[in-house]
User: Fold this.
Amino acid sequence: MNITYLSTKYLIFILAALAGFSACSDVKDYSSHFHNYIQLSAQGNSTLNEDDTLPVKVNILLASTPRKDVSILLELSGNSNEVLRLEQPQIDFKAGEKTAQVEIYSNQKGILNQQQVVTLKVKSFTDNNMEAWNEQNIIVKPNKNIPELTEEQLILLDEYKSKWGLDLSRFLGKLKCNTTVTFNSGDYGILYDDKDTKTYEGTSIITLSEHATAERPILKILNNPLGMGSFLWEMMRRCTIDNQTWNDHENNPEPIAILKAINYNKNDEVFEASLDGIELVPTQNHATFIKPVMTSPANEEFGTDATWLNVIPFEYQFSAWTRFQEMAENNVTYQFKEGSQTIERYLKEAPESYRLNPTYHLTYSNLDTDEWGDETAYTQPSASYNLEQGVLQFNFPWDCQISSGGYTLFRVTYTLNPISKN
Assistant:
């Protein structure tokens, strides 16, 4: 097939994939159009807890449409104790078909005490022209317990009900969440690779915040905040370890030297996010959730002040960042080459863009004003709840250090607990 006959969309797919997979250590010729590559990509969440009932959905895309019936056999690698199950290992494509989807479920064994990374791989295929393009990691986390409220918190719940008729118990516990992400066109190949809209379905555990008072009902989301858990981890990787700049080892060896110094291992690292400070306003049935956050500390050496932005105050627990900070405090160094010269630096002197601080990488602009100057791609952050419909909804913009075209827009809907019969 002459390359001039390839569709524009196929060329874009190839170029985007080349950028997305530049970090791979193999030397396959991914630009070759003689292979029908098999691409795996999670549709929404690629993380689940052991007790989740919703599956991880993985899309299968062939680079070109097969002219005859073909089959692909998939397998789960690293699936110790069979914590996951693949519902349909063999995928059959009829001639003319190039897309399919598989679902991967938790076996709900409840045996994990730390996260486990399971990899969906292409095991075999019936067409010799096929070749696996990539693999898809699935993170399985231990069950997260719903915290019991203290006696003081239970008193607060009674006060909210007495004062405003607000049954806050409907907001607490394990709630289902649906999150729709709408990307902007400038982020093609950077934040998204195929569809400009993505949907995440999952659950979050919500409790009463320690900052709640009799006058201020405040919620805290302990996991998968606003349904963004998998999304935030994916964007963190794209900002850092999967970023083309970080993986240009020949021209930019410093980032990989930092990862080596902190013993970074992609399958062992743990990334968690939570969100405190969602304050309900019972007299208006809405909530506030945008707060000032220090996204970059002051740097005395360069004479710069701390950077504060009005954003969603996610709190991150990232094992690699924790380790980086501890090693920096202990004056650990890293080495890299600049031409023929070997440079040695302290971790604490590393450029901020090469550190692994999620708060820095996952924030870029204020969210309460349109700093991109594109009103059509901006929405004012808002949150409201409707007790009759049983929903808590959020709408907001978001961007990060590698955003190139403007804000990404989010619409989040939590399904509240039913009305108590007591």
Remarks:
- DSSP finds six helices and 23 strands in the chain.
